[in-house]
Amino acid sequence: xxxxxxxxxxxxxxxxxxxxxxxxxxxxxxxxxxxxxxxxxxxxxxxxxxxxxxxxxxxxxxxxxxxxxxxxxxxxxxxxxxxxxxxxxxxxxxxxxxxxxxxxxxxxxxxxxxxxxxxxxxxxxxxxxxxxxxxxxxxxxxxxxxxxxxxxxxxxxxxxxxxxxxxxxxxxxxxxxxxxxxxxxxxxxxxxxxxxxxxxxxxxxxxxxxxxxxxxxxxxxxxxxxxxxxxxxxxxxxxxxxxxxxxxxxxxxxxxxxxxxxxxxxxxxxxxxxxxxxxxxxxxxxxxxxxxxxxxxxxxxxxxxxxxxxxxxxxxxxxxxxxxxxxxxxxxxxxxxxxxxxxxxxxxxxxxxxxxxxxxxxxxxxxxxxxxxxxxxxxxxxxxxxxxxxxxxxxxxxxxxxxxxxxxxxxxxxxxxxxxxxxxxxxxxxxxxxxxxxxxxxxxxxxxx
Length: 449
Description:
alpha/beta, eight-stranded mixed sheet
């Protein structure tokens, strides 16, 4: 049965979907894709998950999740694999030939020149085109530049299949999920946004997401508007963070505790300032502005400036550390420095675009002995110049300085009074210590001793 069919009632489509009569293929079993796949399997009972990594496919087919920090995911994968609702494969063309609904959730990154890289999306769409039938629906959840579905996805399917416009549906539903709470977010933390390439595509996607989420399903006027929603959310956060990072640079000259001022300013119903910090990382915020400013001719000067400011914060953090070392007559080339947290966010075992990397590179490049500490990942091999160290081992190193990059919960238990005088830069306003023993600089509040 096909969900992109105007002759069928919504109730008929709903029943068919829930009884597994509308097979689904989800392309991409990554940290966002596997949770989505498992939820689809739990709801529809008939899902094929597709990934190019045979180890991921084998792990899933064994009823396990490769992502240990995602609450509830391992249990849901085990359950849906055991009852036959979920099967995984590397054969995307076979999955495409079986499915009537095709969900794309593969990464879209940028090139070294900050150009949006749609190569993975194009590859998946080409595979779908080999097996797509009339009446099938393609749903894109990957974050993409506006007009990707209209100018790339739909034309590519037409070109590489035997179908014409109107014989298949295309819809966009932005992924609005955070690592560490993916299942909760997919099932209803936020409304689902849906836009189709035509009215029938929109209606078909709405019928599906009404079953996937317990929250509202919000329709927008067209598929390009739906693509823009996630981008606008990311751009807003990037510009907001850039603003407070710039305000944080006024601390030393003005004596203003910017963090306190932000906290009070946010009492106003018109204000929602984020917090400054050592840098902006992750799969989303550092990349999404380029989906606009490098894809279209409009200059996007504010977004470019925001990117420059946020990318400059690791260097600002190191500069403050150098000021502290100079204040206590310690040479950087002779210093032992702990970098606390190498993941881009607390509790999340991901390091893409983490500010810890440029911080470590600069410190190690100037001769410092750098120790990388992170309780949620074991492999620090990508951080050249950093010696992997645990919190417990720090007490025996003879540290001169520490930089808090990521506010992992485990760092709250560090016994700072066990160290001799330290230079500390707190990049997340997460260190609460008596300052008469240590030189402490908190980004946004300044230096205290």
